[in-house]
Amino acid sequence: MRTIHIAASREYDVVIGRGLLRDLGARAKDVLRGRSVAVVSDSNVAPLYMDAALESLYAAGFTAERFVFPAGEASKCGSTYLALLNFLAEKKLTRADALIALGGGVVGDLTGFAAATYLRGVDFIQIPTTLLACVDSSVGGKTAIDLPAGKNLAGAFYQPNLVLCDLDALDTLPPEIFADGCAEVIKYGMLGSAELLDRLRERHAREQLEYVVSKCVEMKRDVVEGDEFDTGRRQLLNLGHTFAHAIEASSDYTIPHGRAVAMGMRLITRAAVAKKLCPEECLRALEKLLTAHGLPIRTECSAETLAALALSDKKRKGGTITLVVPARYGESELRTVPVGELIDWAKEGLKA
Length: 352
Hints:
The protein is α/β, with parallel strands linked by helices. 45% of the residues lie in helices and 21% in strands. The strands form 3 sheets. Strands 1-2-9-6-5-3-4 form a 7-stranded mixed β-sheet, with helices on both faces. Helix 9 (241-250) packs across helix 10 (257-274) and helix 9 packs across helix 12.
């Protein structure tokens, strides 16, 4: 078991290990003020883990309500968010009470945003049940819902009180869902860890789960502690995401986030190679890693579609947009480019 401390505006621990769901109640008592909680989950995760979570909470003296919504990115929207807020109000949860997010990135983002805004902020705990959520979305305090105009356009920076990464939950993931998380793992290697990339080339991520999750969380901790509110270096965590969000939107979110990130990373790296900003061998290593972890490397979207949709991205500031560009194997950098050049980046990235 590993415990990684995050020294953000609210300090908290990320605990990584097996059998942690059984300890939820005892650990919650240590970090929450009240003894009433609402456990939020989706229709895929709740049948697997809701009863175990509630049993642990009851044993520790908590009263608990459950809120379950349909699984999928389409539920990370205003109507589900408002339904959750109304549910909390109807159940009369107070500012001393808390929310617990039990699920993947959609559950965590939605629950975190509700926690940030209900009664102007209540405590919450993240229990990520996917690899993607363990290594990325559950840590760092970004919470959000999607708007029709784009992904994550309404949200807040709001740190959890505790993150429990129970690796047992990852054992039940379908291969395609596990692969989505591998895209974010590979992203961390491309950002700043040749060591992580080398380890992934030697052994599949599934065969070294505690190392992989711990390494990614440690890397995210270092970035978040230096730039909690995403005004500088934290933007590096968006490698591949500008075009990934466009790919997701173009598919009406039928393409999962991890797969879109894989395609977005390959696209931006291919463009960087074409512009002589990154060596060819970096691209080839990335392609092999993505393929070995069951991820796609090409999109059917046109450059025009990608550029148009990317202009709704949060990283746009007036007439410029910040791109995360690989510079070499295990190292990336931020580049601010005029929005008019985005289509050229997309065209270069789409080439074979």
